[in-house]
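User: Hi! I'm working on a homework problem where we have to compare a predicted structure to a textbook description. Could you give me the structure for the chain below?
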Amino acid sequence: MLHFLGIGAQKSGTSWLYEVLRQHPEVRFPGVKEVHFWDQQRHLGLDWYRGLFAGDDPRRAGEITPAYAILPAAVIAEVHAAFPDVRLIYLIRNPIQRAWSSAKMAVGRAEMRVDEASDRWFCDHFRSAGSLARGDYETCLRSWLAHYPASQLLVLRYEAIAADPEGVAAACCDHLGIARFAVPPAELRQRVFGGAPERLRESLWPELLSIYGARIESLARFLGIDLREWLDPPGSV
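Assistant: Happy to help. Predicted structure tokens:
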């Protein structure tokens, strides 16, 4: 049966999470990392999806599809109706840096280099519906929490992967109800599917701050945590 879902956010460490969990002896990923059933493959039918996780294997089965974070409320209701006890994991990252990382990925897919894309190109990407939705963590959380209790949803910060990867891995294990396990430190600290190395252009900072400044402050109140460092401009640290 399906035990857990990684629901996002895109460019926030989900590939790292997958690489760590797939090494756990009590976890299995019967499909690929991102099955994309709930956002792209629902035409295959719920029986097909259930079949991926069926069998007598006692290990916790799951998948990690970042696009699930922005599922419409009606689809989240369907997920809950089918899997009311599933455990959820949601990784969040400074949405300013997330938007920049996502835009750099889009540059590559457009067969350009980062230095070939203008500020206007980047600003248009930042303002696209997909980028805005993926960076609106509070709305995503409220949508899922309208159907699942907070005890079933673990929220972790991307920054903690670099600062304390062992602690992040342990928190995930505790949330999934599996034993903590030892992963070689070098593997825990290895970047997975890292983006282009270019740092955020200072010229783009005002645009991103205008989009996300108020949202960061609102998210901090919603989660009851200090996110002021997310508002620091590039090069201030």
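For your comparison, note the following. Residues 2-231 form a domain with the Rossmann fold fold (CATH 3.40.50.300). Residues 74 and 232 are 37 Å apart (CA to CA). Good luck with the assignment!
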